[in-house]
Amino acid sequence: MKKLAVLAVLLLVSGCGIQPTPVLEAGPAPTLRSPASDGRGTEPILYFVLADRVTPVVRPSGGVTGIESALALLMDGPSADEREGGYTTDLPRLSGRITSTPGPPTTITVPFPLRPITGAGINQLVCTAFAALAAQGGYTADGTVALAGPDVLLPYQTCQA
Questions:
Q1: What is the pLDDT of residue 20?
Q2: Which DSSP string do the residues of 48-92 spell out, in sequence order?
Q3: From CA 106, how far away is CA 147, in angstroms rounded?
Q4: For 6-63, what is each residue's pLDDT tens digit?
Q5: Fewer CB within 10 Å: C terminus or N terminus of the chain?
Q6: Alpha-carbon distance 49 to 120, whole Å?
Q7: How does 32-57 read in b/e, with b if 16+ C-beta sit within 10 Å?
Q8: Considering Cα of 104, then 98, then 125, then 30, what sign does the dihedral take?
Q9: 2 three-class SS
Q10: Every domain of the chain and the residues it spans
Q11: 103-127 confidence digits (pLDDT tens)
Q12: What would the mean pLDDT of 140-153 be, rounded to a whole number?
């Protein structure tokens, strides 16, 4: 009886009516392109807070921006137009210099304490750093960056936007 039930199930499953189809040509496979390779997409991408979420904003700059420059732009806060659009920041104004040291992982050193910064503020720094690294073709091998301040070296961070 058991064998008969198993055979009935197999017949039902194999006879579902789906006909095999040939491979369909759909063109070439997708590829990744460095935005800096052809002069397009070279504006820095900064991450600000919009409706309690870290959100990317493309900031016109007239050329490729390095990681320290992108983070300095981020620390200046949203522009007047961005503020009108509802963008805010969870970061303090920059008072000092931000530096980056190649990794692995790339280490971003900021001149202000990191402990009082919210999770959104940390994410603003991390995501903006990742975007700047990607624009320069400097992808991180393990997908993380380290953040260091005068008060703490945080565990390795990933972009959560």
A1: 58
A2: EEETTEEEEEE---SS---HHHHHHHHHT---HHHHHTT-B-SSP
A3: 9
A4: 555 555 555 555 555 565 454 443 333 344 444 445 788 999 999 999 999 998 876 6
A5: N
A6: 7
A7: eeebeeeeeebbbbbbbbbeeebbeb
A8: negative
A9: helix
A10: 42-161
A11: 778 899 999 999 999 999 999 999 9
A12: 84
Length reported for the chain: 161
Report how far residue 154's alpha carbon sits from residue 152's, in angstroms, rounded to the nearest whole number: 6
Structural tokens at position 120 = 């959104």
104: preceding bond cis by omega (within 30 degrees)? yes
Per-residue tokens: 86: 């509802």
HSE, side-chain direction, 13 A CA sphere, residue 128: 33
Give me Rg for the CA atoms of the chain: 24
Distance CA 138, CA 70 (A): 14
